Automatic annotation (TrEMBL):
It comes from Granulicella mallensis (strain ATCC BAA-1857 / DSM 23137 / MP5ACTX8). Keywords: Signal. Residues 1-28 form the signal peptide. This is Putative secreted protein.
Amino acid sequence: MKFEVRSIIQIAVVASLVSVAGLPSVLAAQTADQVEAQAHESWSGTMHHLSAPGNGCFHASYPSTQWQAIECSEAPGYRSALPKPTKREQTVGNGSDYVVQAPSGSLLSSALGSFPTVTDVKTEKSVGVAAFGGGGILGSNEYTLQVNTNFYPHSAACAGFSGCFAWQQYVMSTNTPVSLTSNRLTGKTEVFIEYWLINYGSRSGSNVCPSGFIDGGADETGPGEDCVQNTPAVVIANGQLPITDLAELTLSGSATKNGTDKATVTFGTEAFTATVNDSLTDIASGWTQAEFNVLGNAGGSEAQFNSGASLSVKVAVTDGSTTAPTCVSPSAEDGTTGETNNLKLGTCTATGGSAPSILFTE
């Protein structure tokens, strides 16, 4: 019996030693994975802030930080719905969207949106909203990521017309019409910039939208026209990225006065960017707020998530300071998007330092 007990103990000790001996390699593997994850996150942040070598469409693959020129797709026939004309704002979830506000006297030059946590997100479908005529690109995995600017009333692009506002949207869409004259959909996920000059000109005169802009119809609140144009698009994926990939997606928009505007998406180990001259709206001269969220796909549609889905949303900004920005609360009814989602907004916190940001839940 003593021999049997001693043998059992020896076997247990040997097994324990074998287990402990294997532990350092497991920890080493975990550390290697953590280092790789940190390196990847750093690379993604670099690509969002790295200027492209010119105007056009570009791509890079991890770990390279060299933008390579690629062929642009035609400017898509995508159209966001303008926010409600009564307040130029639209709700997201059960209240207006959270917006990041730059400190007094500061202007934003970039805003980067991401989803640090994504929990129980299984399905999403874009549905029509009656208040916007039920339009949009509807169906499963039809959604957009949007970084939206504030409305800027003093833009040089407004050419002095009173009541004119410049507005800019940096958009990733999982599907877009191939052109304004065709309802055929690309079936591709793309990133581009949508430019607006709202209430431009005067219908009593002979003024028309500026060169390159399309007349989007009479403004509902003023005597002018709503003028819109899209940049050429960069194809991110041949197909619609499923909503279950949301945690791997980041979108940023940047604007440099007398320089370029840039919309950038990173997806996994790939980065894509589209750049054009900032002169189209001159938003860099008056960019003080930024909104980021996942929303319906165009036309005022709503992204409806499965029950139990929840997200945290981070918006990091560059404004030339280390001061914490402000979370503009939903009660202030801020946010400029015309699209929505069905998630309920939670709390929002702001952080300063080398990367000022806000973080909220929904």
